[in-house]
Design goal:
This protein is an alpha/beta fold and 567 residues long. Helix content is 56%, strand content 14%. Helix 1 crosses helix 7, helix 3 runs parallel beside helix 9 and helix 8 runs antiparallel to helix 9.
Length: 567
């Protein structure tokens, strides 16, 4: 029997264990939700779905715990299962997706099938569907076992005390809630900034430690003691291997999803960065030509073969149409490519705001962060623009930072907004009426603002919504233009003036662009403002993106789902 002093010791240890495991459970929810959001692309709805499924599964697990005969043995088994699933789930998901995505290409190569006969229907489509949705499966299974923890610990406490405890569940749930809060804090402050495979392994190790504690403390209550010890040692070795090599495995699996060779992959606090390289043979200098592609969370941001087209259209109209180029503001553009073109207009000062400090570091000092060959190519692309003494880089959230610029009374001759598409709720606010209205206050009266505005073909309603949102921010003239960027397809931009003549009217007064661009000339630029017949016929029915409405985010997600055929 346990003595009274042992009761207090056991209570303390059990409550502490419950708090730690609750934190682990919440972190597993975040891990799977975060990874599933990146895999499926529909970040917000994926996170909500995953958390909802895991909560329901936890309830089912709580019911199932009644069928566990021995709570002590059951708990040790439970922690082994949770630790194994928690550590390996993301690695298995990455492997499944990579295999199912590459299998059609392997078969096509084996039988020398042409590209238009790639086997993608039938069983291949079903396998791909199952792999893409496998995060939900692991979420349900993991949630089921996590849900069994509270009932088992509650039973163990009553068995130790030898009686029914009136406040047993209240005590256990109190520890559970506090532990979950601590787990959320650990996720935000620490785990979010490290490799996801390492985060999973560290979390799983706590489950393994909880099981070890039970073996040591309740040795006399357990059957198959040596089996438990052996399984813990084997699983500890597996988790250690996953911690050390899991990210390498995950990167190799993710690399299979890209057509080109992945030459650098890095997770920052905010996103996954991936560089790929495609060799294109030899040039006259016997140096190997290559194409560098840069991806954020699996979505292409630029390709060295045609990024100049995109950046010419982003930079040339707004600077050619603005009265002065002395003080320029760039929001986003941490790769330094838009900045490279802006510096050709000889500004006195450029302020660049980008949230991801690690991304800026890579493009500002590539020699310190990238392989030598890749670093040389990145430096060649952005001309080391981020090292220019005229550039003031603010590594912060633009939504907040522009308030500081307003308070300091700064005014800018032109503003360029070079942000990723609004594929995440956090980006949605940077496309809102509130944000644009504050940017208007920073813009000189005779200046212009230009905004990358997604694809007018693939995401037409999103494109039009951005224009309408600028109009709602009381810009006097709002115009949109488009052209084909081979890596992206048809792409669009929006340009606006707060006073004076319209952007197109200003461009029509020019005889030529003030600065010669690699791709763009004045005639092409003027033609870019022409759209197909009835392009804007449904404009009145397309929503304006106000702060908190998520209108643009939802329009963009719907367009993306339609293109991917996942509705």
């Amino acid at each position: 029997m346990f003595s009274k002093n042992n009761h207090y010791l056991d209570d303390t240890l059990l409550i502490l264990t419950m708090a730690i495991l609750a934190g682990c459970g919440l972190i597993y929810e975040y891990l799977l939700s975060h990874y599933a959001g990146r895999v499926l692309g529909v970040m917000e709805s994926t996170i909500y779905t995953m958390i909802g499924l895991m909560i329901v599964s936890m309830g089912l697990g709580a019911f199932a715990a009644r069928n566990v005969r021995c709570a002590y043995n059951g708990f040790v088994y439970l922690e082994l299962i949770i630790a194994l699933l928690g550590a390996s789930a993301i690695l298995v998901i990455g492997g499944l997706i990579a295999i199912t995505q590459t299998l059609p290409h392997i078969i096509a190569d084996m039988f020398a099938l042409p590209p238009d006969m790639l086997p993608q229907g039938g069983i291949f489509n079903q396998l791909s569907f199952l792999a893409i949705n496998s995060p939900y499966f692991f979420g349900v299974v993991l949630g089921f076992f996590i849900g069994m923890e509270i009932p088992l610990i509650a039973r163990i406490r009553e068995q130790i005390h030898g009686q029914h405890l009136d406040n047993n569940l209240g005590t256990i749930y109190g520890a559970d809630y506090i532990g979950a809060g601590a787990g959320a804090a650990i996720w935000v402050l620490f785990l979010l900034s490290i490799d996801i495979s390492k985060a999973a392994a560290l979390t799983a190790s706590l489950n393994l430690i909880a099981g070890t504690f039970f073996i040591l403390r309740y040795w006399h209550k357990l059957k198959w003691r040596k089996t438990f010890v052996g399984l813990h040692l084997v699983l500890a070795l597996i988790i250690a291997l996953m911690f050390n090599y899991g990210n390498q495995w995950l990167n190799q699996m993710n690399s299979l999803l890209y057509l080109d060779t992945v030459v650098h992959s890095q997770k920052t606090r905010y996103q996954q960065l991936t560089f790929t390289e495609r060799n294109m043979g030899l040039n006259s200098g016997y140096a190997q030509k290559s194409i560098i592609n840069f991806y954020l969370n699996g979505r292409l941001q630029f390709s060295s073969i045609d990024e100049q087209i995109y950046h010419d259209y982003l930079v040339a109209p707004v600077l050619a149409g603005s009265a002065r180029h002395d003080n320029i503001l760039i929001i986003g553009g941490g790769d330094g490519l838009a900045l490279r073109d802006v510096l050709n207009y000889n500004p006195k000062k450029v302020t660049l705001i980008d949230l991801d400090s690690e991304l800026i570091d890579i493009f500002q000092q590539p020699n310190s962060h990238l392989d030598k060959n890749l670093a040389i190519k990145i430096s060649y692309l952005n001309k080391n623009s981020l090292q220019d003494k005229r550039v003031n880089i603010l590594r912060s959230d633009a939504f907040i930072t522009i308030n500081e610029l307003l308070k300091s009374g700064q005014m800018f001759d032109a503003i360029i907004v070079d942000l990723p598409d609004p594929s995440h709720p956090d980006l949605n606010k940077l496309y809102s009426v509130n944000f644009y209205a504050r940017l208007k206050q920073l813009l000189s009266g005779d200046g212009l603002i230009a905004i990358q505005s997604t694809s007018p073909y693939h995401a037409k309603n999103s494109f039009i919504s951005i224009g309408k949102t600028l109009e709602a921010a009381n810009f006097v003239y709002v115009q949109q233009y488009h052209d084909n960027v081979p890596s992206f397809g048809e792409w669009g931009w929006t340009i606006a003036a707060k006073t004076g003549a319209s952007p197109l009217a200003r461009l029509n007064k020019l005889n030529e662009l003030p600065v010669q661009h690699t791709w763009l000339n004045l005639e092409m630029l003027r033609a870019a403002f022409i759209f197909p017949n009835d392009f804007y016929h449904d404009k009145e029915n397309i929503g304006i993106n106000t702060l908190g409405s998520h209108t643009l985010y939802q329009l963009h997600q719907k367009a993306w789902q339609d293109q991917q055929g996942i509705q």
